[in-house]
Design goal:
Elements (H helix, E strand, L loop, with lengths): L5 H23 L10 H15 L3 E2 L6 E2 L2 H22 L11 H24 L12 H30 L9 H28 L2 H39 L8 H15 L4 H13 L9 H4 L7 H8 L1 H9 L8 H7 L20 H15 L11 H11 L6 H13 L37
The structure holds fe (ii) ion.
Fe (ii) ion (FE2) binds next to loops.
Length: 451
């Protein structure tokens, strides 16, 4: 709490104070707990809420965690009324989340207690009857429950986001509209499960929670596994990129930028989510085959012999050999293997032309050349974006697929390119720098006795 800005401290005290007054009033004032009904139900719901709150899961929106506890909190609104829902929400304070600071625990408990109580009051106001519903009563509680959920979810988000905004010293990043829609949809989805728990309580009592929430937990576990797998894929790719970039001081960040530019083109031509992920990986790894090219060839000053140029031309094949065993790369293989093919068939390693060149490779070729031109090299400074775009236009139809060049230009108009910062000179003479960049279309590699 010490490091919080003062508005955040004030807000924290207000929210926690309000919840303390609310729960204190419920516990101390006689008769307030009468509406709660059986304490056994309250206890089961509190335990259920606690278990759910102890296992938050990441939604596919960065840095936001969602837990199934919403379902339990809203089931409490129906089964034990506003007072009971407030007590259930308060148990978030003791959730099993190692490392969660006390202040955050208190805030979580307080805001859940407030949301539970407010939703419970709204539920009653709209005619909802507190207690275990009979099968015949189920229809009558759907309307009031929907209103209660419609209040609980936004109130919870507003209370939490206000805290996040006030606590952040940096300008908070705005959640994209699509992300917010996905976020709200998930919350409302969890709210529906709360209705099922309440509805089934009359038939199978507390087992209803297990029946309804067990599939949710399994889904949550599977989702967590998927995220862990994605993170390990990303780490693998990043490590390989790092290995390539240590071969040359001036190409630091090249893999990441080619990946970004490739993704921009891929989005522009309408690739789906799976292919977007694959092309992101392909962009990162397109030059991984440089690991198989002798460093002295990459760093040679002056024209290359035919053998040396042949070694450079082999890097797409070498790249494929290096990553062939990584099966999640899938279509990325084609991008790595063919990123130096030319639209007119004069590229390498296979001399494919036009549509014979895999789509991934046609995308990466444009992104690769563009980043090379807009980055510093040992033999020249970075070209401005406009100059690089003009070069792409010049090469459209000969070196590059015109469709991909046009798509990239459209993407750049929508999302301006951030060129890398100017590279300072290498820190020492021993730092490895490539003398000629094989990706640079404005300065082709000279070959002695070659074409
Ligand atoms: Fe390359």
């Amino acid at each position: 709490m010490r490091g919080l800005p003062w508005p955040a401290k004030v807000y924290l005290v207000v929210v926690i104070g309000a919840a303390a007054a609310l729960v204190g009033n419920i516990v101390v004032v006689p008769g307030q707990l009468a509406g709660v009904g059986e304490y056994g139900t309250l206890l089961v719901l509190a335990l259920l809420f606690l278990v759910c709150e102890s296992m938050p899961t990441l939604l596919n929106v960065e840095q936001f965690a969602v837990s199934v506890s919403f379902s339990a909190a809203l089931a409490a609104v129906v089964l034990v009324g506003p007072e009971g829902a407030a007590i259930v929400g308060l148990t978030a304070v003791v959730s099993v989340r190692p490392g969660l600071p006390l202040v955050k625990r208190l805030f979580n408990g307080a805001q859940f207690a407030i949301c539970g109580y407010a939703s419970g009051k709204v539920y009653e106001f709209f005619g909802g009857v507190t207690g275990v519903p009979e099968v015949n009563d189920f229809e009558a509680l759907v309307g009031p429950y929907a209103v209660a959920a419609a209040l609980f979810v936004p109130l919870n988000i507003v209370l939490t986001l206000t805290m996040v905004r006030l606590a952040s010293t940096e300008r908070a990043e705005r959640m994209p509209a699509r992300g917010m829609a996905q976020f709200l949809l998930s919350y409302f989805g969890y709210a529906t499960f709360g209705l099922l728990v309440a509805g089934l309580w009359a038939t199978v009592a507390s087992i209803s929670a297990v029946l309804v929430l067990l599939p949710l937990f399994i889904a949550r576990w599977a989702f967590g596994q998927y995220h862990a797998q994605q993170r390990s894929y990303d780490a693998t790719i990043a490590a390989l990129c790092q290995a390539v970039e240590t071969k040359d001081y001036y190409t630091r960040g090249h893999c990441t930028r080619v990946s970004l530019a490739s993704t921009m083109i891929a989005q522009e031509i309408g690739m789906g989510a799976e292919r977007l992920r694959a092309i992101r990986y392909a962009g990162m790894l397109h030059d991984v085959g440089k690991l198989g090219v002798p460093t002295k060839v990459l760093q040679k000053d002056g024209p290359l012999t035919e053998e040396e140029f042949a070694a450079i031309q082999l890097h797409p094949m070498r790249g494929l050999e290096i990553v062939r065993g990584i099966d999640f790369l899938d279509e990325a293989f084609a991008g790595i293997m063919h990123h130096h093919e030319r639209h007119d068939g004069r590229g390498y390693p296979m001399g494919l032309a036009g549509d014979e060149i895999p789509e991934f490779a046609r995308v990466i070729a444009v992104a690769d050349a563009f980043d090379s031109m807009t980055s510093d090299r040992s033999y020249r400074g970075a070209r401005p974006v406009e100059v690089a775009v003009a070069e792409l236009h010049k090469g459209a139809g000969s070196q590059f697929d015109p469709e991909m060049v046009a798509a990239f230009v459209r993407a750049l108009e929508r999302e301006p390119w951030q060129p890398p910062r100017k590279a300072s000179p290498p820190p020492s003479d021993e730092t490895e720098t490539t003398t000629k960049d094989h990706d640079d279309p404005t300065m082709p590699i000279e070959v002695v006795g070659g074409s």
